[in-house]
Amino acid sequence: MLAERIRPFFNESDFEATVEKMQEGYLIRAVSKIPNLTLRINVAILGRPNDFTVEFSTDRGRYSSLSMIAGYLTTMFGGQFLISREAKKREALDLLENSFWRHTQMEVADLVDSATHKKRHGKTS
């Protein structure tokens, strides 16, 4: 199952991850375990085993708008530090998402290969 193959990615990236079965598929909820960084990521795997989509979403929009407000309010008081820190967080999130997609593509390819191998092996028996 793809959800169980994706879950360790988050655990290895300092996130606590859970998998929930839904009517349409699976939902992976990952929450960062990094101190002073509240970040929630949701991955939805929707559809059937041979016809599915994977969706990656974060609370980034909400968190960015709050940081922008804080940045505007504190520019006079050294707010440039806050803006720089938020930019680094966004960059780290982008790197995490890119790594997530590479990991997911490899896991899907591995599942396809194992299914193909099982079909071939089953036909020759």
Per the principal axes of the C-alpha atoms, what is the gross shape? elongated
User: What is the helical fraction, as a range of percent?
Assistant: 55-70%
Mean pLDDT: 79
Number of individual domains: 1
The side-by-side strand order for the widest beta sheet comes to 1-2-3-4
Distance from N terminus to C terminus (CA atoms, Å) equals 25 Å
Order of helices and strands: HEEEEHH
The number of E-state strands comes to 4
Count the helices. How many? 3
Biggest sheet features: 4 strands, antiparallel
Which value, in Å, is the CA radius of gyration?
A: 19 Å
Percent of residues in beta strands: 25-35%
Structural class: alpha+beta
Low-confidence stretches: 61-74
Structural summary, described in words:
- The chain has helices spanning about 1-10, 60-75, 80-125, and strands spanning about 15-20, 25-30, 40-50, 50-60.
- It is of the alpha+beta class and about 120 residues long.
- The protein has one domain (about 1-120).
- It has a 4-stranded antiparallel sheet with strand order 1-2-3-4, covered by helices on one side.
- Strand 1 (about 15-20) and strand 2 form a beta hairpin.
- The longest helix has about 45 residues, at about 80-125.
- The model is unreliable at about 60-75 (pLDDT under 50).
